[in-house]
């Protein structure tokens, strides 16, 4: 593990879970009688619990944000680029918490859990959850961990939306909001992509109205297609071109004139889709994309985002990436504009990067530098 | 604090809401936040400047002021500040109008191209002048619209901008008698407080 530690990794991490008995009322009107949250922590909580940072995950993420579960694990957590000693979320200073969202499929209560009222798996019966529901459940996790106020709530993409919702719903419970590659709401195009992904899953004969756990035949093809579509939208055309161009699979001769994998990019997408099927639940994917569709804090204020943000007290750090066409800089700019309109403290960086939406997961040098600088400011404020 | 920035700071009222266009490393805003209890934002286009502004604890928005100030409502600020940047923008006339749309008053500082040393440089050496305030060679300069004190005042008149106060500094950031008498010849840096007429 020494080598990893030298490279600024948090090393081997053991996930934890916590059970909550108090019922949770959801935006949908339904109530979860009890639930479990899976989470990981990195770094040490200081004596007055002032150095805690909540990291919110994106669509297909989970609580494994940094480090490794085993010495021989091949890939680290999803935000390894930003969490660890000397990284923007510096675990020498901060106590970083990442929870698996409610409705997830990696340890928190979700479609793959047992419904205590029926004794069967929830499956398609798991209630739809919203970003606000996640904030409510994470606030209870904060109570459980003895954290009254986060030094920052941070996230990219759907995680950035959660950070924004935290600042709106629990203004007293976070000092800073870090919103990266996010949007104040999805565009019609984004909802359209989500709908195609959902239809791919729901029209798979093995989906069986979401009750696939009964037969054990999971909608593999549908979930794979959904993920392939997602992947296309997370990368930029330039990044795909650079990575694959029109490179062909195998070196021999001309076209094979069939529909097997002919181009490298096809091989990549199929691999990404197939490996996703092995680690993700179809009902969770439906639910997470729906939570994205529903997110729109301005909706309760006649579409006025500034009004929705008027009660915010946390300063914001907002960052976007030039080649991100899923959540483009213009979407982040809307958040900035609304914060300016209501006189909030905000800093904004538009980072030149060609990796598309996925840039927020990568060690882009300027991104790391500006993010690190902002978090040093947060550290100085809480005295760590 | 450089003496030109000291003068700018002295023009900012206690608790003013300020917008600093091309805020650089955010040093002026930091000073105004600390000493004048000012609030507000800096706009900057240079990535390095943005990072340093964040390090200085100011609110900085990555933004190209050549694209206007459409993020801000009319009269949103007490002061809109533009130090040593007028000469580097695409349309100084449009920016001045925008400044006084979003701000009650404006503060503008720029290098005076009619300064005697620059005249000397061009007249005698026949080369594009370089000085303290103009530290770039002609081929790498971000400055595209040099002007003189006379030019600036003429533009203000044309745009119906009222000059509240003017100061000039020589190359050592002092304010000698000569510069006060004949600013267009002996002033290297010009500082103006302006408002709508």
TrEMBL record, chain A:
Site (Important for acyl-CoA specificity) at 326
Q: Name one GO molecular function term.
A: homoserine O-succinyltransferase activity
The entry's substrate-binding residues are 227, 358
Subcellular locations according to the entry: Cytoplasm
Pathway it acts in? Amino-acid biosynthesis; L-methionine biosynthesis via de novo pathway; O-succinyl-L-homoserine from L-homoserine: step 1/1
- Enumerate the active-site residues: 157 (nucleophile), 324, 357
- According to UniProt, the name of this protein is Homoserine O-succinyltransferase
Q: Which organism is it from?
A: Spiribacter vilamensis
């Amino acid at each position: 593990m020494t080598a990893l530690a030298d490279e600024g990794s948090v090393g081997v991490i053991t996930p934890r879970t916590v059970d909550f008995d108090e019922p949770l009322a959801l935006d949908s009107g339904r109530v979860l009688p009890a639930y479990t949250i899976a989470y990981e922590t990195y770094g040490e909580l200081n004596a007055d619990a002032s150095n805690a940072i909540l990291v919110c995950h994106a669509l297909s993420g989970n609580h494994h944000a940094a480090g490794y579960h085993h010495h021989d694990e091949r890939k680290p957590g999803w935000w390894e680029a930003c969490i660890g000693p000397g990284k923007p979320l510096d675990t020498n200073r901060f106590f970083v918490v990442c929870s698996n969202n409610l409705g997830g499929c990696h340890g928190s209560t979700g479609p793959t859990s047992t419904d205590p009222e029926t004794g069967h798996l929830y499956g398609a019966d798991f209630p739809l959850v919203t970003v606000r529901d996640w904030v409510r459940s994470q606030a209870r996790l904060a109570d459980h961990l003895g954290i009254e106020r986060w030094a920052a709530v941070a996230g990219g993409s759907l995680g950035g939306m959660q950070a924004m919702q935290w600042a709106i719903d629990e203004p007293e419970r976070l000092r800073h909001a870090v919103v990266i590659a996010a949007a104040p709401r999805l565009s019609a195009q984004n909802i359209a992509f989500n709908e195609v992904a959902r239809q791919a899953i729901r029209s798979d004969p093995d989906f069986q109205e979401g009750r696939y756990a009964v037969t054990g035949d999971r909608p593999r093809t549908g979930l794979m297609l959904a993920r392939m579509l997602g992947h296309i939208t997370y990368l930029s055309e330039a990044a795909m071109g650079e990575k694959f161009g029109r490179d062909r699979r195998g070196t021999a001769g001309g076209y094979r004139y069939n529909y097997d994998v002919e181009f490298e990019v096809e091989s990549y997408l199929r691999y990404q889709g197939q490996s996703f099927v092995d680690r993700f639940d179809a009902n969770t994917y439906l639910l997470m994309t729906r939570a994205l569709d529903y997110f729109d804090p301005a909706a309760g204020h006649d579409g006025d985002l500034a009004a929705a943000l008027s009660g915010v007290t946390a300063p914001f750090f907002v960052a976007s990436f030039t080649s991100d066409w899923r959540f483009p800089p213009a979407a982040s700019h809307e958040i900035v504009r609304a914060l300016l309109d209501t006189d909030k403290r905000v800093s904004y960086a538009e980072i030149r990067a060609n990796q598309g939406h996925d840039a927020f997961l990568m060690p882009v040098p300027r991104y790391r530098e500006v993010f690190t600088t902002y978090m040093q400011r947060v550290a100085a404020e809480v005295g760590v | 604090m450089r003496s030109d920035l000291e003068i700018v700071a002295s023009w900012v009222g206690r608790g003013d809401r300020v917008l600093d266009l091309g805020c650089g490393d955010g040093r002026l805003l930091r000073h105004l936040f600390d000493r004048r209890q000012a609030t507000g934002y800096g706009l900057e286009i240079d990535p390095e400047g943005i990072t340093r502004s964040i390090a200085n604890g100011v609110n900085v928005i990555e933004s190209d002021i050549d694209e206007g100030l459409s993020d801000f409502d009319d009269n949103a600020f007490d002061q809109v500040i533009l130090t040593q940047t007028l000469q580097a923008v695409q349309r100084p006339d449009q920016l001045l109008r925008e400044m006084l749309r979003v701000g009650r008053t404006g503060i503008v500082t720029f290098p005076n191209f009619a300064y005697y040393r620059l005249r000397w440089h061009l007249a005698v050496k026949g080369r594009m002048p370089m000085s303290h305030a103009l530290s770039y060679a002609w081929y790498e300069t971000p400055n595209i619209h040099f002007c003189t004190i006379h030019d600036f005042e003429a533009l203000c008149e044309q745009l119906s901008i009222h000059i509240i106060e003017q100061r000039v500094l020589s190359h050592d950031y002092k304010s000698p008698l000569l510069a006060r008498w004949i600013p267009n010849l002996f002033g290297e840096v010009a500082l103006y407080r302006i408002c709508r007429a």
